[in-house]
Amino acid sequence: MSTRQQGLAIERQAQTYLVAQGLKWIRSNYQCRLGEIDLIMQDGIYLVFVEVRARTSAAFGGAAASVTYRKRQKIIKAASYYLMVNNLTDKQPSRFDVLSFEGEIRQVNWIKNAFGLDF
Predict the structure, then answer these.
(1) How far apart (Å, rounded) are the C-alpha atoms in residues 92 and 6?
(2) 45-59 residues labelled b (16+ CB within 10 A) or e (exposed)
(3) Which NCBIfam families does the UniProt entry name for this protein (predicted)?
(4) What's the pLDDT score for residue 90?
């Protein structure tokens, strides 16, 4: 299985997990010239932009820590663009979550409101 195929499988697993937690799936792998968003979900009134990460080792801080400042900037810009092109900018409460899978057993770690617009 290629790295890309593994990534897509992990993202499907994340989507399944979040749906089981009560979120509604909106879109996967949203791409624009400003960046990419792995999953877009609905959680009550919130539109949730989810970054999915997986690491087999906790070295260097694990999967969640791999979402760098630069990566957060790209996600925020892509999310802002998504909101704009869908005419949701002033109306839609949103948040940024990170869902990570850690270790060989793929332990789930869901960080709600992992970061904000303070880039």
Answers:
(1) 32
(2) ebbbbbbbbbbeeee
(3) PRK12497.1-3, YraN family protein
(4) 73
